[in-house]
Amino acid sequence: MSVFLGAAKSVTRILSQTRKELIQIVRRPAAFISLVLGPFLLMALFGVGFTGVRAPLQTILVIPPEVSLPREVSFYQDLTGPAMAIRAVVEARDEAVGALSAGTVDLIVVAPADAITAFREGRHAQIEVAFDEIDPSLDAYARVIAYNLSQEVNKEILRRAVEEGEAYAVARLDAEDSLTEIPPEVIAEPTQATANNVAPTQPSIVQFFAPAVLALVLQHMAVTLSALSLVRERLSGTMEIFRVSPINSVELLLGKYLGFGIISAVMAVSVVLLMVYGLATPLLGSPLVLAGVIALVVFASLGLGLLISVVSDSERQAVQLSLLVLLASVFFSGIVLPVEDFRFEVRVLAYGLPVTHGITLLQQVMLRGTITTEWQVAVLTGSGIVLLLLTACLLRRQLTRTVRA
Questions:
Q1: Contact 297, 219 (CB under 8 A)
Q2: Using an 8 Å Cβ cutoff, are 324 and 39 in contact?
Q3: Of 163, 197, 231, which one is at a domain's C-terminal end?
Q4: Eight-class DSSP state of 52
Q5: Which residue from 56, 180, 206, 249 has the fewest beta carbons nearer than 10 Å?
Q6: Pair 323, 289: CB distance under 8 Å
Q7: Residue 229 belongs to what domain range?
Q8: What is the pLDDT of residues 279-325, one digit of tens each?
């Protein structure tokens, strides 16, 4: 009998804990709804925001003065199709190379100046296609575009030859009394495209994504650790002690920034060493610049995490919001799909995440050796400062309410 009585008491205690948890959820329906609807809304936003079409490569065509080809942009736009957006047709190669180096265009295409001579000599004329890309997938995409471009040019040459009569090029050479034996493959394919990636390094898939994973880990760790800190102190009653002590809200936050920053720095140094010496990831930039970028990513991420900690009323809600930030980072930061492939409204959300800027900046420092998007450094710095000030104001109000209560 005592055995059954003990089992009944045990079941009663278990059910009491179950009832307590269910009551807490019922009393806070918003937390349960956010847990269910949050990931769904992010997935819906991802589906609506993703265009499904890769942005066209901004292109400049270089046609030397001695080449008798059209100079109209519309002619070449119709020839290349939607994969390329022809920005201009110029005669100076240096002008196009300068635009490529400045990052204002993605491709430059240089028409061969010796096309007729090459054909007479029975060899292919080379179309130069140059691009500057460290992403292996985009490197392969640009090479496919270069190949398709040469095929379209050859198709246009053959179309004109058929329109103008039998073997246009051969007949012309015969009229000039300088006919040579031209191989059939040259007649069928007068031009070939030579793809040239001018990026300082061409990393593997693992090496390219290593800095991106570092940025994601840095943000997630900083957000998760800091999101729980103030919630625990508020629930444990430590906030009342802070209010009667000489410390103010800014000093309290700066202390947390420093503590979590040291932890993040140790983790970042360990991961960078493993990346460089374990995965052979290039580090072309200055280690000091790399450290500065990591510090900015951690600074902005801690601000986001502490803001979550201030607005959350329980550890459960803080964890839920941190999870939503992680999901948004995976979907929209560019680690899976390029940010440029999303609609403008979704890109605004993406650029509000520290990891989006961290991925680009870390890849540039490590794989290019220099930062080409300085505006992202300014955005990281500005967002970190804004988050610090906003969190300080909200924390100050909470401390004031604590004393009044």
A1: yes
A2: yes
A3: 197
A4: S
A5: 180
A6: no
A7: 203-404
A8: 888 999 999 999 999 999 999 999 999 899 888 877 778 888 888 88
